[in-house]
């Protein structure tokens, strides 16, 4: 904007202090009015050039400066209240947003004023400059910005000085008046009245450097969204994605349900849970690590309701909690959608995954080719479908089918691959593998996963790492399971659901044995590298007897899928870190 281009931030502390002195000396003779009423409009007033000796604010405000500024602004609050004005208003009636004004009056000619317009806006002051007989301020709301144009000739001396003395950058104000386009073409609200709606006590980040401290951006997201308006756009996109997912599910006849966050057993995935204690019940409870098992219970129970349409398809959008590592891809709490459909298999879920992602892309971008960190991603259907075995063979030359159940030979072959160094965490994980399927998965994660940039369904996972998936109907030792990868990241996980209660119990028991063996192996190593590893096995895994009982009542053939909403939003907002798309991510304690 014209005012923003011209303005250079003055030293906030010096400026604010000088204004307080001016206000204090004039307080005996001036009567405070926060509503400025303009007389006749002047159309030929030209804006003055910006003085060249204005100093920039430093990139970061020191603690002592912050405290001084806060003390000055608190004094202004006291002065306002002492004169009968409340600096924290109850409401403000506005007629337009800044974007609406920009669109409605874009036709005005340079220098033209629309006196018949009576408009009112509200927003935060993000820039101001005062010189001569003019004060320019820039107001931002959640749709954009507009300039406020205030002339001394249209105000009393008292009003003009009050405007300059009591308004600071960061304040939220309401302003009303007519519309003017300046001689240089800047659409402005020609201010006639204003009120302080919220008096800001702390200074905003430096205009030129912004809030660049990444850690501070995540800790103080409220400041981040003030300093970096594009951040708010990420969360608008996130809201669109969640809304579009719901619309998609409803269009296919799915019913949204809710399942417990606090659970008696942590199931549905292999992950370290958060544990809490319920005082009244005198028992440990777990924050859920997946919604899967309760959604399946829902599918079982709904079968008792006869002649009720639509109850064979259920889904839940909710938070998941895992007490594991933090990275650009992982946050201890994250959002997923899990869905289950009776009388379908994992082929149905592949189609559903494509449908959801494609609809979300169209809703947010209007096209199926999106840029992610410099790479163009094509979401046009159909997406690539390959088995895990074929992808590993393509990347390493090793055909794991030849090993049968010979896990030691599989380990030897894997250790010969470049990238798996002796003594590394990967080597340790490989050594603790209890089956060929586990070795295959380790090799896949090391050599294949990061190469799957374009949308790819990886099919037919080993049974040893898929305890909840149905055995493959054509290939022994495999399951009807897929994971969806985009940009080298897992976006979704799905399978034809295991409905045989005896097989399910056996799988769970084997999973517990494998977990305990891995736990013992890790306990022997106790290397520094392993501490805090997200694959740490120090937690206990128990059978969920209630879920197994529900299966014995009979669960219909079904398919299910979980999609990571955070990672999908990362893709559609070109965000490098999961913390960019979670409003308040979990962070380390500041030292």
UniProtKB/TrEMBL annotation:
GO molecular function: ATP binding; lysine-tRNA ligase activity; metal ion binding; tRNA binding
Domain of life: Eukaryota
Name of the top EC class for this enzyme: ligase
Any single Gene Ontology cellular-component annotation: cytosol
CDD domains, alphabetized: LysRS_core, LysRS_N
Family label: Belongs to the class-II aminoacyl-tRNA synthetase family.
Ranges for region Disordered: 45-67
InterPro entries listed in its UniProt record: Aa-tRNA-synt_II, aa-tRNA-synth_II, aa-tRNA-synth_II/BPL/LPL, Lys-tRNA-ligase_II, Lys-tRNA-ligase_II_N, Lys-tRNA-synth_II_C, NA-bd_OB-fold, NA-bd_OB_tRNA
An annotated GO BP: lysyl-tRNA aminoacylation
Protein's name in the database: Lysine--tRNA ligase
Pfam families reported for this sequence: tRNA-synt_2 (PF00152), tRNA_anti-codon (PF01336)
SUPFAM superfamilies: Class II aaRS and biotin synthetases, Nucleic acid-binding proteins
């Amino acid at each position: 904007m014209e005012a923003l281009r011209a303005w250079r931030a003055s030293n906030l502390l010096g400026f604010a202090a000088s204004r307080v002195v001016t206000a204090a000396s004039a307080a005996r003779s001036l009567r405070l009015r926060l509503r400025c009423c303009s007389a006749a409009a002047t159309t030929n007033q030209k804006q003055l050039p910006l003085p060249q000796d204005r100093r920039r604010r430093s990139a970061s405000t020191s603690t002592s400066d912050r405290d001084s500024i806060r003390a000055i602004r608190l004094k202004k609050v006291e002065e306002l209240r002492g004169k009968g004005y409340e600096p924290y208003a109850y409401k403000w009636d506005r007629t337009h947003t800044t974007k609406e004004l920009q669109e409605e009056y874009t036709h005005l000619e340079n220098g033209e004023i629309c006196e018949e317009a009576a408009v009112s806006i509200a927003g935060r002051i993000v820039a101001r400059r005062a010189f001569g007989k003019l004060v320019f301020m820039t107001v931002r709301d959640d749709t954009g910005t507009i300039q406020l144009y205030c002339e001394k000739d249209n105000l009393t001396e008292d009003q003009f000085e009050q405007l300059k003395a009591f308004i600071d950058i960061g304040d939220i104000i309401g302003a009303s008046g007519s519309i003017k386009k300046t001689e240089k073409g800047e659409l402005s609200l020609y201010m006639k009245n204003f009120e302080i709606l919220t008096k800001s006590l702390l200074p905003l980040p430096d205009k030129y450097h912004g809030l660049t401290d990444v850690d501070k951006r995540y800790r103080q997201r409220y400041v981040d969204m003030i300093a970096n308006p594009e951040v708010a756009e990420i969360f608008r996109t996130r809201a669109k994605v969640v809304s579009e997912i719901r619309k998609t599910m409803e269009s296919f006849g799915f019913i949204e349900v809710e399942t417990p966050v606090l659970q008696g057993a942590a199931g549905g995935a292999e992950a370290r849970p958060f544990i809490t204690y319920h005082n009244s019940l005198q028992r440990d409870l777990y924050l859920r690590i997946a919604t899967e098992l309760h959604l399946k219970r829902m599918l079982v129970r709904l079968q008792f309701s006869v002649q009720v349409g639509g109850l064979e398809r259920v889904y839940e959008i909710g938070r998941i909690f895992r007490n594991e590592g933090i990275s650009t891809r992982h946050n201890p709490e994250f959002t997923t959608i899990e869905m289950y459909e009776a009388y379908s298999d994992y082929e149905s879920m592949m189609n559903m995954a494509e449908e959801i992602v494609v609809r979300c892309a169209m809703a947010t971008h209007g096209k199926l080719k999106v840029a992610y960190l410099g790479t163009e991603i094509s979401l046009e259907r159909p997406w690539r479908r390959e088995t895990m075995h074929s992808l590993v063979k393509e990347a390493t030359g090793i055909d794991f089918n030849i090993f049968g159940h010979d896990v030691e030979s599989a380990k030897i072959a894997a250790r010969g691959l470049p990238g798996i160094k002796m003594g590394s965490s990967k080597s340790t994980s490989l050594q603790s593998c209890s089956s060929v399927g586990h070795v295959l998965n380790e090799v896949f994660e090391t050599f294949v996963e990061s190469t799957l940039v374009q949308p790819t369904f990886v099919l037919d996972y080993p049974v040893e790492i898929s305890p909840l998936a149905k055995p493959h109907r054509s290939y022994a030792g495999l399951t009807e399971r897929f994971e969806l990868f985009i940009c080298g990241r897992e976006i979704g996980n799905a399978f034809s659901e295991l409905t045989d209660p005896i097989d399910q119990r056996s799988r769970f028991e084997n999973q517990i044995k494998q977990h305990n063996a891995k736990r013992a192996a890790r306990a022997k190593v106790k290397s520094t590298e392993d501490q805090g590893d997200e694959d740490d096995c120090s937690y206990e895994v128990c059978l969920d007897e209630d879920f197994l009982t529900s299966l014995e009542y009979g669960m219909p053939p079904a398919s299910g899928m979980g999609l990571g909403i955070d990672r999908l939003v990362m893709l559609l907002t070109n965000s490098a870190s999961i913390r960019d798309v979670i409003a308040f991510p979990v962070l380390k304690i500041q030292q």
